[in-house]
């Protein structure tokens, strides 16, 4: 299928991804997992959760291989790869490929629709727990699809708060309550937080925590942009040259600020997020300041982590 793994698409902590071709000529992405620790929970999670889904903004699982220690997942092939490649300014590899704000807005809406489906549209609620630009794949038209369900958790739809041992997710996107239950219960609102942090990076064209700047007020992007909104200043974002761009950016930022409220009960559901994104800017209120303080100036590990508490 992969022609002896000749065409490698990417590499992650889980293993490598290779381009393949089915007998009917359909291209696929084959994710070959490293030898699993324990009982292979991530592999089972991914198959169990994604096989329950069918949505235009969720990547399609075509099949899987489970033979002894050999485990692989076969997905539809998405030619534009991950969103991560297209949003960070100063990334040499995407110098000619940075997406316009209108496209980023459509991507944000598509991801929100996919998450709303996972939270409300399935027979069982699926919490993703690893929403970040790397796990959003783009088709030939830059329509987004949520991928990588290795950390997902399936729970009954009527159950709002779930029990969970340890922390799962990626540093920089993990909701406070997933780190410490003192902030509240873990629920679908934890995905909402990760979504908000991701949309901030889409609008800002940078990681939320920038350790390379000299001015401490600019290190933590949500903090910096909130102060500008509060003072009704221009957002000062590079690359937005017209009034429509500025309004779209302002809308995405206000929605993101609601999504990253420290108290999960103050965050909107993904249904409400869609309403806000597709509604009028004038109807949006600026939320309370959603963070306790700027994080310390330490490099951020962008890898997926599972930490026992």
UniProtKB/TrEMBL annotation:
SMART domains: S_TKc
Region called Disordered, residue ranges: 288-309
PROSITE patterns cross-referenced by the UniProt entry: PROTEIN_KINASE_ATP (PS00107), PROTEIN_KINASE_DOM (PS50011), PROTEIN_KINASE_ST (PS00108)
Positions bound to ATP: 31
Biased composition (Polar residues): 300-309
First-listed, main subcellular location of the protein, grouped into a coarse class: membrane
Keyword tRNA-binding set for record: no
Residue ranges occupied by any Protein kinase domain in the UniProt entry: 3-292
A molecular function GO annotation: ATP binding
Topology with respect to the bilayer: Single-pass type I membrane protein
Cellular localisation: Membrane
GO CC terms, sorted: membrane
InterPro entries: Kinase-like_dom_sf, LRK10/LRL21-25-like, Prot_kinase_dom, Protein_kinase_ATP_BS, Ser/Thr_kinase_AS
Transmembrane segments annotated in the record for this chain: none
UniProtKB keywords: ATP-binding, Glycoprotein, Kinase, Membrane, Nucleotide-binding, Serine/threonine-protein kinase, Signal, Transferase, Transmembrane, Transmembrane helix
Keyword check for Hydrolase: no
Pfam families in UniProt: Pkinase
Highest taxon above the source species: Eukaryota
Family: Belongs to the protein kinase superfamily.
Protein name: Protein kinase domain-containing protein
Organism expressing this protein natively: Fagus sylvatica (Beechnut)
């Amino acid at each position: 299928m992969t022609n002896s793994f000749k065409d490698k698409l990417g590499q992650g902590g889980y293993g490598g991804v290779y381009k393949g071709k089915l007998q009917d000529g359909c291209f696929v992405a084959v994710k070959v997992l490293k030898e699993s620790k324990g009982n292979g929970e991530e592999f089972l999670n991914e198959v169990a959760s994604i096989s329950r889904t069918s949505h235009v903004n969720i990547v399609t699982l075509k099949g899987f291989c489970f033979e002894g220690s050999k485990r692989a997942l076969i997905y539809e092939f998405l030619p534009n790869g991950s969103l991560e490649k297209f949003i960070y300014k100063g990334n040499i590899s995407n110098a000619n490929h940075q997406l316009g704000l209108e496209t980023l807005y459509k991507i944000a809406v598509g991801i929100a629709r996919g998450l709303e489906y996972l939270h409300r549209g399935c027979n069982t609620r699926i919490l993703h727990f690893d929403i970040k630009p790397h796990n959003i794949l783009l088709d030939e038209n830059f329509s987004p699809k949520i991928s990588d369900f290795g950390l997902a958790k399936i729970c009954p739809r009527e159950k709002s708060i779930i029990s969970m041992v340890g922390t799962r997710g990626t540093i920089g996107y993990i909701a406070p309550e997933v780190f410490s239950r003192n902030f509240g219960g873990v629920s679908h609102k934890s995905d909402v937080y990760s979504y908000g942090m991701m949309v901030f990076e889409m609008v800002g064209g940078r990681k939320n925590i920038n350790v390379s700047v000299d001015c401490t007020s600019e290190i933590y992007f949500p903090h910096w942009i909130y102060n500008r909104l509060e003072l009704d200043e221009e957002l000062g974002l590079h690359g937005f040259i017209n009034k429509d761009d500025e309004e779209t950016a302002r809308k995405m930022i206000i929605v993101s600020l609601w999504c990253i409220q420290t108290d999960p009960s103050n965050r909107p559901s993904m249904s409400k997020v869609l309403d806000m994104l597709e509604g009028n800017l004038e109807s949006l209120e600026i939320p309370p300041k959603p963070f306790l303080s700027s994080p310390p100036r330490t490099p951020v590990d962008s890898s997926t982590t599972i930490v026992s508490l």
